[in-house]
Automatic annotation (TrEMBL):
This is AMP-binding protein. One of its GO terms (molecular function) is phosphopantetheine binding. Keywords: Phosphopantetheine, Phosphoprotein. Its cofactor is pantetheine 4'-phosphate. Pfam families: AMP-binding_C (PF13193), PP-binding (PF00550), Thioesterase (PF00975). Residues 141-160 are annotated as: Disordered. The lineage of its organism: Bacteria, Bacillati, Actinomycetota, Actinomycetes, Pseudonocardiales. The keyword Transport does not apply.
Length: 501
């Protein structure tokens, strides 16, 4: 028999009682089970004499939960009951009435008692009611308690793609909507049985392994995002805008290097991480906002140096969407010229400038409009032109918290990239490449894809998906990811070309 409850003398005295059938000093534990002792010695279970319940295999003392809640200064009275959530699972629901003049914070109450109480005894919900319902006899009427309140806080909305993606996973797992950065997974109805599928969905969506205990330690979207960022090694100081976005730095497989589209940011590639084997590191190369390059070749030299710092030797796997495909092609040219093996080069709806060779170089206004289009993912409207920072913050999630100067810096990057592409001519790449064509963008894709054959000595494979150009890594990301997954499988099963090292 145990000695008692740690630091709970009153509870110990009520449960560990003298044994009337034993020797002096012997004790017994009052389980709270109500039974009938039959003449044949069998015990028939009749129920409980207290409010102890069994929840997910663990006994939970409702009185202990209620006592813990009542220790909060802003709580007048408290009770705990077991309810079924929207998934049909039994969960612990707590109700508190405020102390005079107080306004209890349900999320704060959960956090306050997460340490002293066992995990199973931490309420999934805390609902504040004006007063607890009482029956005619003055006792608590548990049947009259309202349904638990499970509503998002309405605080800071998610901004970046990762924030929005993580909030969406919380919504999917818990069956709620409108989850913000400061909403608590458990205050929204989460419990230990839902943490496992939640962690699994994080792994599938972001390719990052988050330990289960981290969800208990960091239950809000904002706190979990910091854990994701740390796990991905992105570096909080750069906030995801550094020269290398470490989308998934761990893994024993060959790394994938994605080159940013014209906007200069690689956050868009988070949408296809779930389609990439969890053992592969994934990096996104991002444009610098100062000392802008004067050519695609200069940019390729810079990115090649970054890649080699992360992976000194081949084989290399390069990918890029739109403008990023042109830069990835230029990096591949340089790697082959250095005698390195490029095992994979994938261009997502990217085409050589030769297809537009008859067009004049865009002027300043056209460059700015195109750069803004690339950021917004649609043609800019007059209202967007009138308030560019506001439009970008509203519709470009990675820049939702950017000031006007930061938005202008990103626009300058986009304008420079558009100008670089318009004035560049690709070199010839000594190898095979794959072009993933956005089938709904038009033209049919035959001419642009054929144009790449002039700039590659090997095979040019074409994969067409049902997507527009700007939707490839947004609404059409599942189709893009599925195509990428198949391309990676084919590349892994392909024989190594003779003579390549």
């Amino acid at each position: 028999l145990a000695e008692g409850y740690l630091n709970r003398p009153a509870l110990t005295a009520g449960r560990f009682v003298a044994d009337p059938y034993g020797a002096g000093g012997d004790r017994m534990y009052r389980t709270g089970d109500l039974v009938r002792w039959r003449h044949d010695g069998e015990l028939v279970f009749l129920g409980r004499t207290d409010h102890q319940v069994k929840l997910r295999g663990q006994r939970v003392e409702l009185g202990e939960v209620e006592s813990a809640l009542r220790t909060a200064a802003d709580v007048g009275s408290a009770c705990a009951v077991v309810r079924r959530d929207g998934h049909g699972e039994q969960v612990l629901a707590a109700y508190v009435s405020p102390a005079p003049g107080a306004r209890p914070d349900p999320a704060a109450l959960r956090r306050l008692h997460a340490d002293p109480l066992p995990a199973a005894a931490v309420p999934a919900t805390v609902t504040v009611v004006p007063e607890l319902p009482l029956g005619p006899n003055g006792k608590l009427d548990r049947a009259a308690l309202p349904e638990p309140t499970i509503t998002p806080s309405g605080g800071r909305p998610p901004g970046s793609p990762v924030e929005r993606g993580l909030a969406r996973l919380v919504e999917e797992v818990l069956g709620v909507t409108g989850v913000g950065l400061d909403d608590d997974f458990f205050a929204l109805g989460g419990h230990s049985m839902l943490v496992v599928p939640f962690v699994r969905r994080i792994r599938q969506e972001f390719g990052v392994e988050v330990p289960i205990h981290e969800v208990f330690r960091s239950p809000t979207v904002a706190a979990l995002l910091r854990r994701l960022t740390a796990a991905a090694g992105q570096g909080a100081g750069q906030g995801g805008f550094g020269p290398v976005l470490r989308l998934r730095p761990g893994g024993s497989g060959a790394p994938l290097f994605f080159v940013h589209p014209a906007a200069g940011l690689s956050w868009c590639y988070t949408r296809v991480l779930r389609h990439i084997g969890a053992d592969r590191p994934v990096y996104g190369l991002q444009a610098r906002t100062a000392d802008l390059p004067g050519s695609v070749g200069e940019m390729a030299d810079d990115y090649l140096a970054r890649i080699r710092r992360l992976q000194p030797e081949g084989p290399y796997h390069l990918l890029g969407w739109s403008f990023g495909g042109n830069v990835a092609h230029a990096v591949a040219v340089r790697l082959r010229a250095a005698g390195e093996r490029v095992a994979l080069l994938v261009l997502f709806d990217s085409y050589p400038n030769q297809a537009d060779r008859d067009r004049p170089v865009p002027d300043e206004r056209e460059l700015r409009s195109t750069a803004l289009w690339n950021l917004l993912g649609r043609p800019p409207a007059p209202a967007d032109e009138a308030d560019v920072p506001g439009a970008v913050r509203r519709e470009c999630p990675p820049l939702s918290g950017a000031d006007g100067e930061q938005v202008e810096a990103v626009l300058r990057v986009g304008m420079n990239n558009v100008a670089l592409l318009a004035s560049s001519t690709p070199e010839v790449y000594d190898g095979d490449l794959t072009v993933v064509v956005a089938g709904r963008s038009g033209p049919s894709g035959a001419l642009p894809v054929d144009a790449w054959r002039v700039f590659a000595t090997g095979r040019v494979d074409v994969v067409t998906i049902d997507s527009g150009h700007h939707e490839m890594f947004t609404t059409a990301a599942p189709a893009t990811g599925a195509a990428l997954s198949a391309i990676l499988r084919d590349a892994e099963s392909a024989p190594t070309p003779g003579g390549w090292s």
